[in-house]
Amino acid sequence: MISRFVPGALRGVSRTDVWFIVVVTVVYVGVTAFVASRIGHNPDRMMVLAQQVVHGHLDSPTFANSVDSVAVGGRYYVAVGPLQMLPYLVFVPIHALQGAARYLVSLAFGLVAAWLALPLARAFGGQGKATYWVASFIAFGTLLFFVAVFGNFYYLAHAESFLALELFLLEWAGRRRPLLLGLFLAVSFLARPTTVVAAIPFGLALLWRRRSRIRTAVALAAPLAVALALYAAYNIARFGAPLESGYAISHLLEPTLIARRAQGLFALSQVPENIRLALLALPNLRPSFPFIRPDDHGMSMLLVSPGLLVAARAGIREPLQRTLWIATVLVAIPVFLYYGGGYTQYGFRYTLDFTPFLLALVAMGTTRRFGRIEKLLFAASVVSVSFGILWHAHVV
């Protein structure tokens, strides 16, 4: 099916390619099983919501006073997007799997995204052994690995968006069909609304080289318009207003996030702290092993995934490079304006909203130079994220 969207991406699969897929699968499944053994298999709120949806309800009394719950007229909702709940519907009639659904859903999206790391690396210039280094970095050295294995519906949104953006980038590197580009962006939007602004630079770049610009614009915009309408209808059904996602009025427990949201859901005052958490924050030192403790609110992405620094080698000379950098910056703007970037996590997971664009630049960067420094950065990323998974499995 994927080859229909990205012609040629999976043709001529080598034995090494197969081994890469096998290793990724075994590691992701194994780590997910390890995490599940530590955390347990109780159905989460998205499983409860899916059961309620089957019976015609979007609320449940069990959501009362939970994080990001919203009370409206005596009913309790969860302020998350529709795409986090939809995959759980598959497990409603399968009672035996409802407890494991949280892990199976996240693993499914994360694993496919990890498989696509190899065609993504190739599509944006990876050659020879560098391709496998880049693909391994994407699969094991970015927060994709982290969000895929924990069975957390908040993390699921990132895995869904990451996969959709990978498919978008693969289509961009291929035939650039406007309807498919718009569809992949629409799916990413339904998971992580901040990513929709990537349509601006890519849309302009697409229109610049097309003769039938009106037809192209309509084809690109149509899936996005449908996604916007679906999200608006979902908000109306829960909160009575198309633009009310619930996050501005949801119940919070963590004092720091309560104080920050009081400054505004999106506000310039949030930028300094978000930049600190995403780019500058260091782990806390402790006297006993492992001697460091990551900050639950976030940690520098340059420490979590130092391999992203290779993106700088891509430069800005070519139009594609500039489009990718602009998309990165534009998506980062609402991320850094938002009141929080998650809590009880490793790194600053909201950076996953723009990480796929950086990964395309990383692959391009290896065509200019690929040596010991780049390998060291990729290897350090894998060690870092692996540590983060072990740490998080211990503290949650």
Count of helices?
17
Major sheet summary line: 2 strands, antiparallel
Tell the overall outline: globular
Could you tell me the number of beta strands?
Answer: 4
Order of helices and strands: HHHEEHHHHHHHHHHEEHHHH
What structural category do the secondary elements indicate?
mainly alpha
Strand content: under 5%
- Indicate the percent of residues in helices: 55-70%
Strands ordered across the widest β-sheet: 1-2
* Termini Cα gap: 37 Å
Mean pLDDT: 93
- Radius of gyration, whole Å: 21 Å
Unreliably modeled segments: 1-10
Name some characteristics of this structure.
two-stranded antiparallel sheet; 4 strands; mainly alpha; globular; 396 residues; 17 helices; 57% helix
